[in-house]
Request: fold
Amino acid sequence: MSFISTTARKKMLTIAGLIWFGYIVAHMLSLLNFHFGATAFNGFYDWFNNSPVYWLVLLTLIVALSFHVFIAVLRQLNNNTALGVSKYRRHYPKAIPRFIAWSGASMLLAFIIFHVVQMQLLEGSDRHQQMLDIFSQPSMLIVYALGLMVLGAHLHHALSNALQTLGVSNKTYHLLVVLIVLLIVVGLISIPVSIVYA
Reply:
């Protein structure tokens, strides 16, 4: 993909990331049905999991995630080999060591794959009870807590970069990004917290 400019790659990376961001928001909102009881929660997921929309969403997410990861890795590899001339080389921000950033991205990818596989392996229609069973296990609480921490960090970094790529960058929008990330993380973590303290 060397024929595609660096700017174009960054925009493609942003678009693929925004597709996933849209899904995460929708997923969080649908999960909040859990707080309204088994009938509301199971009713929504019975409809969603048995509709053609489910497979369309799943296919779109797989393609977008694969593309997002591919472009991110390609950009980093190109950066690492950029002519060997420092003025053409884009160094990673010193505030976030490269190892930590890439470890976080790898952990997020592993968490997403784990979560999707786990959901595919669930049997039966009582999703509400299955959620109770999952989050009654301390090991699952730890996995999801770590997953949400990494998701929050990645969303903060990604949304800030996405706004910059799209030409929007100031302190007001940065505060908005922080608020959005907090709302998403709090919304998602409210389900296991409500189970633990039920």
In short: The chain has seven helices and no strands.
